[in-house]
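Please decode residue identities from the backbone states below.
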């Protein structure tokens, strides 16, 4: 009996997560298992719109088909290890993955009609930015499609309010996991699944230019560049990836992109007191953005234990806004959300 139990556990572990299969491949999968092609459509609706937790709940699929699917696949639900809620309504979810790693996801409600989910794409991050807590523990691995989309499934299942916006701004650099990110976006856009508008999905990147060029060929969701400095010397100190993809190369991409696309590119600028926030820096940013249809989000640095930086005072951020706005650059000052539970920008980590 003990031997049989071990074999059963081994078989269960070896099952494929069905949410790891791109939705465009599901028809081939179900026909190979002897089912009709339309079962793929049913699967998409059950998995991503109804968000069922077992194949038994898929009542419009014949019993034999449900049994076959259950033998081959696992539904792939993520295990919720912890959830926290800040006083401002922001929620942070920590999911435990099959190999014991952990990943964090943040839900940010804003008013009555907006609810933004901040999604992670990697366990940890290899960029090692000097102002970001995520990189402290180093990089563990990429998330699969099922683990990325699973964050949205589980958070939506736990909340009555519908997710209206998605930002790929959690743990990790999305451009280093481009295929899984793109297939996850396809699910988010699909009307049979989440049905989120492409205008309400934003991908944030440190500016990995070759992958960015590939990404914009394959997807037209919004992109945001995490800039955070106006000179290569400082940006390389804050963001070592700048030694590979310098500011000039990133801006060259942005200018080419602006000529082809109607929308603006968002630039995120985390403001650190007496580090990157002088008025001279603001004037230099105006020069850098010449020829780019740009929107700038000024984000106060979010402190965390052991960090050497402090946020810029509000008055200095407003002074930046006064410099950028008259130059035709839409400039927003972002309020930090979820600071008390280490859920704000740059605070996420996979610590157990």
């Amino acid at each position: 009996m003990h031997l049989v139990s071990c074999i059963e556990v081994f078989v269960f572990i070896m099952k494929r997560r069905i949410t790891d299969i791109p939705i465009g491949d599901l028809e081939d999968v179900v026909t190979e298992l002897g089912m009709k092609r339309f079962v793929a459509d049913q699967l998409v609706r059950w998995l991503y719109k109804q968000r069922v937790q077992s194949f038994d709940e898929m009542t419009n699929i014949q019993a034999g088909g449900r049994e076959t699917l259950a033998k081959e696949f696992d539904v792939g639900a993520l295990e919720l290890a912890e959830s926290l809620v800040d006083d401002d309504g922001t929620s942070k979810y920590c999911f435990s993955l099959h190999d014991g790693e952990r990943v964090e996801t943040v839900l940010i409600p804003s008013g009555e009609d907006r609810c933004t989910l901040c999604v992670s794409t990697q366990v940890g991050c290899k960029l090692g930015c000097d102002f970001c807590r995520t990189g402290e523990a180093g990089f563990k691995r990429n998330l699969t499609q099922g683990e990325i989309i699973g964050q949205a499934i589980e958070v939506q299942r736990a909340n009555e309010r519908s997710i209206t916006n998605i930002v790929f701004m959690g743990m990790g650099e999305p451009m280093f996991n481009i295929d899984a990110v793109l297939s996850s976006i396809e699910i988010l856009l699909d009307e049979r699944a989440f049905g989120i508008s492409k205008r309400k999905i934003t991908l944030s990147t440190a500016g990995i230019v070759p992958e960015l060029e590939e990404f914009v060929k394959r997807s037209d969701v919004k992109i945001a560049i995490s800039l955070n400095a106006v000179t290569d010397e400082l940006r390389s100190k804050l963001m070592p990836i700048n030694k590979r993809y310098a500011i000039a190369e990133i801006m060259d991409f942005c200018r080419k992109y602006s000529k082809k696309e109607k929308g603006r590119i968002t630039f995120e600028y985390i403001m650190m007191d007496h580090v990157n926030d002088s008025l001279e820096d603001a004037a230099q940013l105006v020069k850098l953005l010449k020829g780019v249809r740009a929107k700038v989000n000024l984000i106060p640095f979010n402190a965390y234990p052991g960090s050497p930086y402090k946020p810029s005072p509000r008055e200095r951020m407003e002074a930046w806004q006064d410099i950028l706005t008259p130059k035709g650059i839409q400039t927003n000052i972002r309020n930090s959300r979820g600071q008390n539970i280490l859920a704000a920008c740059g605070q996420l980590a996979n610590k157990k």
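Observation: The mean pLDDT is 92.
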